[in-house]
Amino acid sequence: MIEICVYGADIICPSCVGAPSSKDTYEWLQAAISRKYPDDSFQFVYVDIFSPPEDKEKRQFAQKVIDEDLFYPVVVINGEIVDEGNPRLKNIYEAIEKRAK
Fold first, then answer.
1. Reduced to 3 states, what is the DSSP secondary structure of residue 48?
2. What's the pLDDT tens digit per position in 25-84?
3. Fewer Cβ within 10 Å of end Cβ, the chain: N or C?
4. Which InterPro entries match (predicted)?
5. Residue 49: which domain range?
């Protein structure tokens, strides 16, 4: 199973004015990936960086997004940053296919 985690916030990233919200991006990615890979198994997770879950790893990564001023949403696949800001499907598809081998 491939875990696709989107770290973001309700507030749009100041450097990403005009881009969709993190939650909208999460929903868009979930729909696009599920359409392209209907037979594959994914776990989609959304993490609000200002209100992360109790999971230690996700909490630490949410803090990293804040501390390092990463452009959010940050798309992480199996623990690796794949894209940030206004993510591109091409980058995400390439990361998925690399892990599916």
1. strand
2. 999 999 999 999 998 889 999 999 999 999 999 999 999 999 998 988 999 999 999 999
3. C
4. DUF1462 (IPR009190), Thioredoxin-like_sf (IPR036249), YuzD-like_sp (IPR038218)
5. 2-100
Tally of domains in the chain: 1
Distances from the Cα of 80 to the Cα of 19, 20, 62, 84, angstroms: 23, 22, 13, 11
Which tokens go with 70?
């990463």
Q: Which of 55, 57, 92, 50 is nearest to 72 (CA)?
A: 50
Cβ neighbours for 22, distance < 8 A, ≥ 6 positions apart: 6, 7, 8, 9, 10, 12, 13, 46, 72, 73
**For residue 9, what are the CA distances in angstroms to 14, 21, 38, 84?**
11, 8, 28, 13
Contact status, residue 90 vs residue 98, Cβ threshold 8 Å: no
